[in-house]
Amino acid sequence: GKQRRWTQKSKELSGTNKALEHFDIFYKPVYKDTWPSIRISLLTTNKYCALINNYGDVERARDTLSQLGACDILEEASEALQSTQSPDAEAGEGFNFARETTKKSTNETDDAAENDEVEEPPTEDEELLTLLRYEKNTSLDNFVPVKRVYTEKELIEQEDLEKSTYQSTGVPINIIHESPVQIPKDLGVYAFNKGDTGEFPAPNSNNAGKLDYFLMDGASILPVIALDLQPSDKVLDLCSAPGGKTLVMKQTNLPESIFCNDISGSRLNRLQKVLRSYIPEDVTDDITLKQQDGRQLKNPQFNKVLVDVPCNTDRHVLLEEDNNLFKSGRTGERLQLPVVQRDLLVAGILSCIQGGSVVYSTCTLSAAQNDGIIQSALEYIWQETDVNVAVIDLNHMAKAFSKTFRFWRNSRYGQLVLPTLSCNFGPMYIAKLKVLE
Ligand code: SAM
Asked: Is the ipTM of this complex over 0.95?
C-alpha cells in the first residue's frame, strides 16, 4: 500500500524539473553558447523595476529610489532615441529580416555604424562576480542534471511544434521602418544598474491610500513603450490581467481610452485591485473592463492593440510547482498554446483600424511562441482576409535600451530580452505590426 505509492510518486518528475529538462532540450540548440548563462539566470531571482505612481507621492518615491542607488532607465533611453537617425536613411528595404538590415547598415557610413552599436553582453568575469553575489539566493538542487522522462510521442509532438511552426510557407513578410518610438514624458521607471542586485522595499502609500510605486519585471515596460502611445489613442489590451501593463499605459497619461479584456474573471478582479491601489476612482473613466474570450473580437475599433498572450512563462514553470504548466496533466493545454496565441494575435489584428498598430508580447524564450506566432498569424491573415499587415522594425528601441537590457540578436521579427545574471530581466519578446491602409 503506502510504500508502493511512495515508489510510484518518486518516479514522476516535478513540473519544475520537467520544465528545466524541456528547456535544455529545446532552448539549448537555439541559444547555443549563451544557454548556460540564460539557464542559470532563469533559476535565480529576477530583477525588478519600480514604476512611479503619478497618483502617489511622486517626489518621495523618486527620492527613496535614488537614495537606494536606482536610476531612471527611461532617461537614458530617451536620450539615445533622440539621437537615432531619421527612418528615411533606412527606408525602402522591404522584405528584409531585421537582422539582415542590422548587418547591412553597419557597413554604411561611420555615423550609421555608430548608431547601430549594440552594447556587448557582459563578460564572463562580470557574470561570475554577479553569480557569487547571487549564490545565497540560489538553490543548488536546481543545477542537478535531470533524467529524460519524455515518451517518444511527446518528444515528436514537441519537436514538430518548435520546428514546423517556424518553417515558412512562403508568404512574404514585409519589415518596415518607422519613426523611432517616443518615451512618454510622464513615465518614471527605476532600476538598479547592471550587476547591482539591490532590492526595492515595499512601497509606501499617500494620504489617499495610493501606493508610491509598482514593482514588476523591468522588461514588462517594453511592450508599452513599443506601442508608442499618443493622446488620441483608443487602446485595446486584449489579455490584460492582472494589469501590470495596463498600469504602465495609464501612467503615461496619454491614451484617450483603454479597453481591458481578459478571459478570466478572477484575474480581472486582480486587475481591478491593482488599479484601486494606484489610481483614484474619479480618473478611471477612461478604463473599461470586459471579460470575454479575446479570440472572438474582430471589429476594427482600436488604433493601438496590445496582445500579451499566455505562454510557457519560463520563470514561473522553473520555480513554482503550483499550477505548473509542465505537469503531465497539462500537456494537452501546453501543446495547444501556439494555436491560442496565433488566434489571439489574429483577433488583435482584426480589432485594429487601418494605420493602427499591434504589439505582440510573451515572457518565454520559445521561438515557436515568439517569431513563430508572428509568422503563422501573418500567414493566416494573408490567406484568409483582405487585411494588409507589415512588421515594424524595433531595432532602434533595442539599441536605446541596450544599457539596461540584453537583447538577442537573432530574432527575425521582434526583439527578445535575454535574462543574464548581471541584468536579470525577462525573458520578454516584443514584436510590432502595422495594419496598412
Ligand atoms: N498583460 C498582463 C499584465 O501585464 O499584467 C499579463 C497577461 S498574462 C501574460 C496572459 C493573460 O491572458 C492571462 O490573464 C489569461 O487569463 C489571459 N487569457 C488566456 N486566454 C485568453 C483568451 N482566450 N482571451 C483573453 N484572455 C486570455
From this structure: yes
